[in-house]
Structures are given as C-alpha cells and as structure tokens.
Amino acid sequence: MKTIIEPFRIKVVEPIRMTTREEREEVLRAARFNVFAIRARDVLIDLLTDSGTGAMSSLQWAAMMQGDESYAGAESFYRFEKRMKELTGFPYILPTHQGRAAERILFELVGGKGKVVPNNNHFDTTRANIEHSGAEAIDLVIDEGKQPTVRHPFKGNMDINKLEQLIHRVGADRIPLCMVTVTDNSDGGQPVSLENLRAVRGVCDRHGIPFFLDACRFAENAYLIKLREPGQAQRSVREIVRDMFDLADGATISAKKDGLVNIGGVLLFKDEDLLRRAGELLILTEGFVTYGGLAGRDLEAMAQGFEEVVHEDYLAYRIRSTAYLGEKLLEIGYQIIEPPGGHAIYVDAGHLCPHIPPAQFPGQALVCALYRHAGIRAVEIGSVMFGTDTYTPSTELVRLAIPRRAYTQSHIDYVAEACAELFEQRQSFAGLRMTNKPSALRHFTAEFEEIISP
Asked: What's the sign of the alpha-carbon dihedral 268, 273, 276, 277?
C-alpha cells in the first residue's frame, strides 16, 4: 500500500505555534543565522535532529512510574541491565546520561596522543572526543559512500582494503580500537551490511585490534540489512541485531536514538578490566555505576524503549516514512544521498546552490531558507560542521532528521511542499560568512551574517 500507516494512535497532543514569515525573519536574525539558537516555540516542524526528540509510548510512561531512585543498586538498573543483556549479549553494561558521555569515557581510556582510530565515518561528537584525547580520527567508508547519486545498498560499509593499508602504515599498536557506525549518520544514515561487519571483525582479529560499534541506530541498521542483504529477509530483526553485537568487543549507544527516549546512553563491554576502568571514570563524572547520571525512571523508559525498537511494524513504518520524504524530494528535483537511509534525508546543498561556494556555506544557506520560508528547522552537515581553515568536506549537505513517532504523514507532506516552493527560489539563496568561529563543534554556537550581493 502507498499510504504509510503509523502503527500507533495519538493519545496526547502538543500544540504547534504558527508563525509568520516576518516573525521568522526577526527570529533568524536574532539567532545570527544559526538555527541552534532559535527557541523551539518558534519552530513549526523541527527536523534538527532525531536525537532525544521522539515521542515515548504509553508503556514507557507507565514504566517510569516504577522508577527506583535509590542511589546504589536500584531495581530499575537491574531491569535495564537484563533487557540490554538479552538484546545485545554483552555481559557488562554501564548507563550514561547520553551517547557522547559514553564516547568521552571510552576515548579517555583508550585514546591519547599518537593513537589512530579508524571508522567508516565518525560523527561529530565521536570525532571531537577522539581528537580531544589527542588521537586522530580517520574515516574509511567505501568510495560509493562518498557519491550521493550512487545507489549502493550498503554505502556505510568500511573499505576493508583501506583499513588494511592504514594498519600497515601506522602499525596495529597505534590503533586502540576500530569502530564502525551503524547506521552511518555522517553519510546519509546509510547502513552497514553483516558481511562487511564480519570482514572488519576478521581484519581486527588478524591484527589483535578490538572492534567496537557506534550503535546509536542499531535497529534501523538491522532492518535495512533485512530488507537489502541477501539471505537475511526471512530472519527476525532481533536475530540480526544479536549477530551485529556478537561481532563486537564493545559498543557505545545514544539511547536518544534507538532507545526511543529523550535522554540516556549506554557503554557495553566484553572486557572486565575495561569495564572496571570505565566504571571508575563513570563514578567520577556521571554517577554511580547503577545509575550513570540518570534517574531510575529514565532507566525504566530506556528498558522499555529498547524492547519496542526491534518491533518490526514500528521499523517498517520508520524506514518507509523516511523514504517517502526522500522520494518526494527526488521528484521535485533535489539531489539527495541515495538511497534514502534510516533516520533522515540528506540534501546535497552544493548541488542545489552551485552559485554559493563552500567558503560561504551553501548548506547553512539552505538551512536558513527552510526556516525563513516555512518554519522548518534542519541542520547543516558540511563546511560548518566539519570544515576547518585548512579542510573542506567533499559534500555540502543538509540533514532533515525525522523524530521518532512525533510527526504524521501530513507533517512530512508539508515539508515536501515547502521544499518544492524553495526549489524554485534556490538562485536567490544568499551565502554566509562566519563571524564567530568556536574552536570545537562549531556548528552548535557559530554565528553568521548573510552576504548580500550588490
């Protein structure tokens, strides 16, 4: 059927405030053309991120009522731990308040000057935590993953030859771990195949390198494996998820994605010594090991969320509704990263706005145009997020990240209609110059001014 049916009913609603173009113009200028500085009340459709922005289920809200807020040994932790062990097979589970806290602890333990950490594509906070430790983050995605129009089923795959070459060049002793991000957020939410994960595991085994997953969107990756990888169609998502985790020595998870919650993260280990050392840092900066900076009610919501996320009717709706927006934009004439990934649609802003050079941030120009025209908030993934004074990314993208269970198909139709109107106005988009340039993760707090042609 063409109609996408949400596999839930709406029980509680939150009103959306309508704004005028004049109001949005004033808001955008006050925010210095950085939509992170815009108040949520001034946003009509918020596609800034899918992280922590979804709607929780009635069972999650009910589970929160049994939250045990004991400082140590809370029953909520043991219920959460049991669910994670059943789902992933990992013996050692540490909660954190969100994914970047898990990353910070991990790379404080294994990173450091002279170390090199390969990944298919590091996301912004992962890269920042690696580099903050003094280590170098290197991306080794397959060549097809760098080409928006190529329709490869697993564009998030790591290039095995490049991994072998890196190990040969720097030496295995300088690589504390190899990480693969599932799905590949920085490159269109593209999935990684089981075949590729097994190949990476094989390389790591040959060289004695631990293998970790950045598993924020593990369930979406598993469902795309089920849809696209030969021999996987008849298997359950739970089985595929377990296969993915069984291949790894450890994992970081932001539960704000496939945990279906608004706050929370997880560190998973098979090595008891690494668990002990991570637990010491957790106590120092997050909280005791049985709460990790979270309330007991948050642990309960996470436990239920990690159950619901592998329900296949939910995943079918989730993946199809994302693809629906991508197909609409392709019909209009936008170039996106193809095929549509799991959690977001990535528009090629460089292709859309060839009159704006990378130094004037075409992605940020499109982000501003979307908000100004229709009250839609998106995020740039290009020269603002990843560029430096000496490095320009190969693509200038805008991500339309779809919160889980928050918007209906009519909301997505509104986004598509607004994009159709903007497509006709694309030549009028103005470039920007950065007037405030933070030293790290600059996309969050950078400030801009528009470059108005005479």
From this structure: negative
What are the tens digits of pLDDT across the range 284-314? 999 999 999 999 999 999 999 999 999 999 9
- pLDDT of 391: 81
Q: What is the DSSP secondary-structure string of 363-404?
A: HHHHHHHHHHHH-EE-EEESTTTT--SS---S--EEEEE--T
Q: What is the bridge-based pairing of β-strands 397-401 and 250-254?
A: unpaired
Half-sphere exposure of 201 (CA within 13 A, CB side): 15
Can you give the CATH number for the domain in which 134 is found? 3.40.640.10
pLDDT recorded at residue 131: 95
Instruction: State both tokens at 327.
Output: 């197909």
Domain boundary pick from 272, 288, 308: 308
pLDDT, tens digit, 9 for 90 and up, residues 57-80: 999 999 999 999 999 999 999 999
Instruction: Please determine, for residue 2, whether its predicted confidence score (pLDDT) is greater than 80.
Output: no
Question: Which of 98, 100, 103 has its CA nearest to residue 294?
Answer: 98
pLDDT digits (tens, 9 = 90+) for 397-429: 999 999 999 999 999 999 999 999 999 999 999
| Class of residue 298 by CB neighbours under 10 A (exposed 0-12, middle 13-18, buried 19+) | buried
Tokens of 58: 């009635």
Q: Are residues 150 and 224 in the same domain?
A: yes
Count structural domains, the chain. 2
Rg of the Cα trace of the chain?
21
For residue 327, give the CATH number of its domain. Answer: 3.90.1150.10
Together in a domain, 150 and 214: yes
Cβ–Cβ under 8 Å, residues 172 and 208 = yes
User: Residue 1 has what pLDDT?
Assistant: 57
The two structure tokens encoding residue 441: 């993760």
Expressed as residue numbers, the domain containing 346 is 21-50+311-450
Same domain, 294 and 145: yes
Preceding peptide of 454 cis, ω within 30°: no
11 in a domain, yes or no?
Answer: no
The whole-model pTM stands at 0.94
Q: Which residues contact 388 (CB under 8 A, 6 or more apart)?
A: none
Q: Are residues 304 and 315 in the same domain?
A: no
Instruction: Tell me which of 245, 278, 308 is where a domain ends.
Output: 308
